[in-house]
Amino acid sequence: MLRTLWADFIGLIYPRLCLACREPLVTGETHLCTGCRAELPYTDFHLLPPDQNPLGRRFWGKLPIRHALSYLRFVRHGRVQHLLHELKYQGQRDVGTALGQLYGAELHAAGLATDFDLIIPVPLHPRKLAKRGYNQAAAFATGLAEGLKIPAANTALRRTTNTKTQTKKNRAQRWENVATVFEIEDPASVIGRRILIVDDVLTTGATLEACGAVLLAAGAAEVSIAAIACADR
């Protein structure tokens, strides 16, 4: 009782805010308010058969993947864009971890935890990592690992070239930009493993495709991909 009263008192002075809309959370809410939880554009791709998953079709003929997953749909100027902006540019790494925990719990409930052995995030170049202070994809991977109850290897992949932003490039340019910039830190750690590669946003899929190709070439048994949000092409 005293602990609850104290928590309520602290909440009045330092209110916990919804990660999406920045409104104060009420008792019983964590990370996201009830309104945002109800209105976020969830994909539910993990509930679809692989041949009916529109995200998986983006990789047909390019990379053999088992699962193509995205928690949310990217909607410009909406809650999802705000969440990603907070994660990437406002130092709010907890956004990535919290969304990973929520999505990981959903995937676990759907029985997908047994389909993966290891979670690996798309890496940042050391210079960009030093500037930002953290890897937003690694924050998401950490949360997913907690929700799925499987390990994450946040340094398993290394980005060897500090590539230019992908934002204004078409698919061919994006692939050319990342095709040869990833290396595996410890090849023995991925041999025979079923790997879930994760990133914050999936547009053309070129970055995840490049990472998957490197992992398969190193002996990974299979790869799947997951993102916080996917953009319509």
Classify the secondary structure makeup into a structural class: alpha/beta
Q: Trace the largest sheet across and list its strands.
A: 1-6-5-2
- Inertia-based shape: globular
Largest sheet: 4 strands, parallel
The counted number of beta strands is: 6
Order of helices and strands: HHHEHHEHHEHEEHE
Strand content: 15-25%
Radius of gyration: 18 Å
Family: Belongs to the ComF/GntX family.
Protein name: ComF family protein
Domain Double zinc ribbon: 10-42
Organism: Hymenobacter negativus
Key features of this structure:
single chain; 233 residues; alpha/beta; disordered N terminus
Task: Give a written overview of the molecule.
This protein is an alpha/beta fold and 233 residues long. The chain contains nine helices and six strands. The protein has helices at residues 2-13, 34-39, 54-57, 79-89, 93-109, 126-132, 136-148, 171-178, 206-217; strands at 65-73, 118-121, 157-159, 182-184, 194-202, 222-230. The strands form two sheets. It has a four-stranded parallel sheet, with helices on both faces. A two-stranded antiparallel sheet has the order 3-4. Helix 9 (206-217) links the parallel strand 5 (194-202) and strand 6. Helix 5 runs parallel beside helix 7 (136-148) and helix 8 (171-178) packs across helix 9 (206-217). The longest helix has 17 residues, at 93-109. It is globular, with a radius of gyration of 18 Å. Residues 2-12 have low confidence and may be disordered. This is ComF family protein. Belongs to the ComF/GntX family. Residues 137-229 form the Phosphoribosyltransferase domain. InterPro entries: ComF/GntX_DNA_util-trans (IPR051910), DZR_2 (IPR044005), PRTase-like (IPR029057), PRTase_dom (IPR000836).
